[in-house]
Amino acid sequence: MAVATATAPCELRFDSGRICLDLLATTHPEERLDSVERLRDWVTGAGLVPAGTPLTAVDVRWLTGFRELRLHLGVLVCAELDGRPAEGALARVNAVARQAPPVPCAVRADDGVLVRRLRTAPGPEELLALVAREAIELLTDPGARAGLRQCAGDNCPLVYLDTSRGRRRRWCSSETCGNRERVARHRRRAALART
Q: What is the extent of the structural domain holding 32?
């Protein structure tokens, strides 16, 4: 994977179907929230703030907060998928969700079109609350919760929301894990045919 830069924030994003699950994906295949700049890119690329929102106050405190929430979300989501409780992680996610999210408003852009802006510059607590609340909504909505899947690819820890028709999606990405599985299956068949 190429190293993401400020001009390529999309490389930090995995489209799992929910921002909270995209946050979990920032650990795979390696730590991708390894600097304040990369966190700023991820926050913008994931759509936590409207395009053009200045994030000048992002510092190590933000990075620590997002990594801690990611850890608790990971424990909670994996426990839910396994059908076991994770009360400590649940308590932490609930505590983070209590913070007030940033308040959006509609303003006219220079061309007269309405665009979304934030009333005040967001702090880490508000943005973390958005992610935590989204996770709570996902895990408490039976319909959405039923679509939660872990990738069937070898050694792939990614979790995604299966919104496919018939809900038969098996991999986080057909192009990555799905292709690896198809190649491995082909090689196994070829090896059996040779023997």
A: 9-148
Tallying the residues shown for the chain, one arrives at 195
**CATH number of the domain where residue 84 is located:** 1.10.3300.10
Total domains present in the chain: 1
Question: What is the secondary structure of 103-118 as a DSSP string?
Answer: PEEEEE-TTS-EEEEE
**Structural domain includes residue 175:** no
Contact 150/157 with Cβ under 8 angstroms?
yes
175: buried, middle or exposed (CB in 10 Å: 19+, 13-18, 0-12)?
exposed
Beta carbons of 104 and 119 less than 8 angstroms apart? yes
pLDDT of 178 strictly over 80 = no
Q: Is residue 31 part of a domain?
A: yes
Q: What is the pTM of this model?
A: 0.84
pLDDT single digits (tens) 144-160: 999 999 998 888 899 99
CA 110 to chain centre: 32
pLDDT tens string 104-114: 999 999 999 99
The confidence band for 10, taking pLDDT boundaries of 50, 70 and 90, is very low
Residue 157: inside a domain, yes or no? Answer: no
Distance, CA of 128 to CA of 95 (rounded, Å): 10
